[in-house]
Every structure is written in C-alpha cells, then in structure tokens.
Amino acid sequence: MDLVSNLSIGFGVAFTPINLLYAFVGCLLGTLIGVLPGIGPLATIAMLLPATYALPPVSALIMLAGIYYGAQYGGSTTAILVNLPGEASSVVTVIDGYQMARQGRAGPALAAAGLGSFFAGCVGTLVLAGFAVPLTEVAFKFGPAEYFSLMILGLIGAIVLASGSILKAVGMVLLGLLMGLVGTDVNSGVARFSFDIPELTDGIGFIVIGMGVFGYGEIISNLGKHASERQVFAAEVKGLMPTKEDFRNMLPAVLRGTLLGSALGILPGGGATMAAFAAYTIEKKARMRPGEVPFGKGNIRGVAGPESANNAASQTSFIPLLTLGIPPNAVMALMVGAMTIHNIQPGPQVMTSNPELFWGLIASMWIGNAMLIILNLPLIGIWIKLLTVPYRWLFPAIVLFCAIGVYSTNNNTFDIWMVAIFGVIGYSFIKLGIEPAPLLLGFVLGPMMEENLRRALLLSRGDWSVFVTRGLSASLLAVAALLLVIVLLPSVKRKREEAFVEE
Amino acid sequence: MAVKSQKDFFSGLLFIVVGVAFAWGATNYKIGDAARMGPGYFPLLLGVLLAILGVIVTFNALVVETEDGDKIGSIAWRPLFFIILSNLTFGVLLGGLPSFGLPYMGLIAAIIALTFIAALAGEEFKFKEVLILSFILALTCYVTFIVMLKLQFPAWPAFIAG
After folding, report:
1. Does the reported pTM lie above 0.90?
2. Which helix (H) or strand (E) holds A184?
3. Between A346 and which of A23, A181, A325, B80 could a Cys-Cys bridge form, CB atoms 3.0 to 4.6 Å apart?
4. A190: which chain B residues are within 8 Å (Cβ-Cβ)?
5. Of B83, B92, B124, which is closest to A220 when you measure between CB atoms?
6. Secondary structure of A221-251 in the HEC alphabet?
7. Is residue A183 helix, strand or coil?
8. pLDDT by residue (tens digit) across A394-436?
9. How many domains does chain A have?
10. Distances from the Cα of A49 to the Cα of A44, A45, A89, A112, angstroms
11. Is residue A472 classed exposed, middle or buried when 0-12, 13-18 and 19+ CB atoms within 10 A define those classes?
12. pLDDT attached to residue A503
C-alpha cells in the first residue's frame, strides 16, 4: 500500500536518534514558552524559530512541529490551571477546565486534554497522510485564478474567525497585504515603498512583524495592567488519572472533537479556533449522561472535546500548506517563513522533489504528539512551578528572547530597529481593539496574491470575469462569499459576539 | 457629532491614513492596466480599498451607539518607553552604530543592559534581583546561542575581542 510505504519512509527519516532528540527538545521548549501566560503558539514559534536555523531542513521542521504542539499544549495547561487562555483556540478550554482545577481536578483535566490531543493528533496525522497525495494532484490543476480565489477564501476565513469587529479584521488583512508588498517587485525589479533603505528592498521580515506585534505588543499591554488583573492562581494538582467515569464521559467527546477538528482544519482559514468553538457547542448540545456535571461547572467533556478538536485541526491545517503552498492561518504563515529560510518552497512539488522531508515531517507530527504525552504528564508539576515565577522575572527574559531571535535572523541590527517600530504598532492595535492575527496572514499572502492576480489577468487579457468563469475558482469564491454571508446573518453575528466575549 | 466608539474611530482614521499613504505612494510607480499590471497596480487597489474601509469604520464609530463609548483607556507609557528603549539599547550594544563610529559591545553587555532597562518597565524594581537575573540570562544565552547553536554573535566588546 502506498500510504504504508510512504509513512515508512517518513518514520525512517524521523526515527533517527538525532531527529527524535530535536522533536523532544522542540516539544520541551515549546511547552516551556507556551505555558507562560499570554504567549500563544504564534509568539512561541516566532521566538524559537532562530534556534532551528543551524539545523538541516528536516530536523529544523521536525523541531518546529514539536515547538508548535508543545506551545499549544502549554497554552492549554495555562488555560486550565490559571484561567488564562494563551491563544484563541484554548479560550473554550478555560470555561470547564478552570472549574475542574478549582475543584482540585486539574489532574484529570490536564490528562483529558493530553490524551484527547494525542488521539486527535494520531487521527489528524493519518488524515494528513491520506489526503496529501490526492490533494497534491488537485493542486497541479490549479491555475493562477484558482490560487487567487483560494487565497481570498483563506483570508475571508481569517476575517470570519478573528475576534471583534469584522470590518476591522478586513482592514488588518488589507494592511497585511500592503505590508507584504514592501520591497522589490519580482516582475519589474522596482523597489516599492522602501524609502531608499537597502534593507527594506528585501521586504519587511515576517519575524520582525510577528515578534513586534505579538511579542512586544503583548508584553507592553500586560505590563500596563495592574498586577491583580494578571493574578496567577495556581491550583493544587492532586491525582493525575481520570476516573473510569471520566473516561466513559470523555471518550465520545474526544471522538466527536477529533472528527470535527480534522474536517475544519483542512479548510483554509479554518483551523484550531473554529474547531474548538464548534466542538464545545456540540458537546453542550449532546445528551448528558446521568450524574454528569453541567457545562461551565467543570464537565470533563468541555475540556476533552475542544482540546481534541483543536489538536486535530492544527494537524490537518498542514494540508493546505503542504499540498497547495498556501498557509491557512497565521501559525502556518510562520511555517512558510521557516521553510523559505531553509530553501524549501512549500507547495505540491515538495512531495515529489523532497519526499523524505515531506513524509518525515508527517511522521514527526505523530512523534511530536507522542512526545507530548510522555513529556507533559510526568512534568506537569514543573510547568505549574513555572507559572508561579513572578512576572517581573519572566518579561525581561521574554523581551530578550525576542530581541535575540530578531537579530539572529539576518545578523543585522536593522531588524532590531524595525521590531521596535512594530512593537509600538502592535501595542496600538491592542489599544484600538484590533485583532492582529489576520495581518500576519495577509502579510505572507500579499506577494503570492499579487503574482497570481497578475498572471490570471495577463492570461485573460485583463478580463476580471476569469475568476467566476473557471469552475474551480468560482466555487472557491462562492464558498468565501457564503462564509461572509453566514457570519453577517444577524443571528449568527450575535452568537459569534457571545462566543468571543470570553476573550 | 460625538464619537460613539473611540477605538473604532481611531482604527478607522488609521486605516484611512495608511490606505491613502500606500495608494499615493503607488502612483509613483507604473500603474499599467489589468492585463499588464505595473508595480503600482496592486498596492493602489489595496490602498484605495483600505481607505474606503477606513471611512466606513470611522463613519460607524460616529453613528453606531456603544454601551460605554469604547474608550481606548490609559496608555501604558512607562512599559512602552522602557521595553522599546531596552530593545534599541540591545541593538546598539550588540551591533554598534558604524555610521556614528560606535563600536559593538557584544552580546553579554547587551543582555545585561536589556535586562536592566526592561526591568524598569515593571512595577517593582529590585536591583539585586535584576542583577542576578541579568547574569543568569547572559550565561544561558552565551551557552545556548554561542556555544551550542554557534550563531555568529560577537560575545565580547570590540576592544577586547580585537
């Protein structure tokens, strides 16, 4: 069977002692940083990316995947233990997870999150492996018009999922697209918006934006709050294992979450957040077993469902990236940057030209998930300790890692000046109540979109109708329009606002 | 007309200013037409869209009622100033400023300076604590980045390393 032989190539690559070590170190570092309150996977990956520069491409990607899962799991830990979601996708975990922690059931909650994530991760990896080949074949049928429409769909997805005002999210996407255009235009060789600064002709570094906006912006905003607002309540954890009753309750939730997450993750713009929200809604609707704790009061299903969904989705969200070369969300946008640094152009050609890398990465995802279980359940105590470290010791270290990370990208102090500017910009976004994630996605897609728009219209001799006359492109745009209409419907709009109120 | 949502009002203005700036900047490049796009075409399009969107957001901010006026709230000047300053100092010390004839001081000095300045951004500043923290960070970074990852950082000042 193809799938088996492909996966065995992958495991052959990933199961070398050195790559296992990198996966382990990645998970460890990812959890370590991700567990810090207020730091989501995005900031964690941006911060740790430089640590992978010196590695060979396969090992670097394996380590990055480890960092990603680690950061996500770390975020869940913080959500459950201290009521602070480190990222949008663990917002719903907070609701029941924290209640469980307060009742002294943090152990089972963390175990449910861990085991659920592991199961979801395994399924997600299989889905990824199974879908990759057929989807890559579809990808070769894509012309510039289809790529452009797909990117529109992805961006609309990001807009729909952003918390807060939809209009402002559209603005951030446009702003991101524009920023992505800074630098030399590949077609004409004209240096655009570079103000004759040589460093700017290469464009703005995505790490600079990521660190500035997500790292510095967040830190400044956190420091601006009073200590009481970021009060860390570290609950005592006794007993890790869920009871038999817990297992019976969480099993169906894990299954539903996994299924939902795998499906939603594939959609461009979809991904972890939507999956987690949807899974929680479904769990709430599902019939209660007798004697079960109500939702919002520490129901284990409210942890297991969303956590499985979000992990399955983060697995399958690699599908659009690896097969089409299009990042479906901001985290994957960072992955594109990481791949480019290692001279890999993500897209359908990766699988054929670089099968070891492709299947190695997929295998390493499974390893990363397994690693998390091995690493996190025994080490929970240490992560909790970390949460009791005073913030005044943590934030100088975070600032430092950001600064070093930015500098090491190009060994150029120009990036440090830029990150200062973006730090100020990021803080103003927070103050203005604008969610910055769509900006990063727009930023990465900017040049790709321009290129595909240009080609599509060149082929059609300037006729814009090409986007709706080609079937595949038209259907992608139709889905995008549908998403937008749904989210603008009054009833959905109200629900969406309710869902994001928690943030 | 009173501002109903301060946050949205200024977000809208921001979008207008940036949109207009990009659109205006784009007119300096060849625009071309849809079939043959010049380097100015796409940025002009996006800039105009962003500016229009800004107008809508600003307009909504003036018209749509909000519960509490959506105030921006106080700005955390102290953290803003010290975090950014610590970052800039780090850059100056690590890389030097060749255009001003300032030599680099290396990673260790940069880390210690960054830790001290950044720590000033917090509510509490205990000299001894920060001193210990800065040394721990300097040592950890030296070991991870220079010894283990072998990144090309100058560790010590130019006048010592020569």
Report:
1. no
2. strand A183-184
3. A325
4. 29-30, 39
5. B83
6. HHHHCCHHHHCCCCCCCCCCCCCHHHHHHHH
7. strand
8. 788 888 888 887 887 777 888 889 989 999 999 999 888 887 8
9. 1
10. 8, 6, 21, 29
11. middle
12. 38
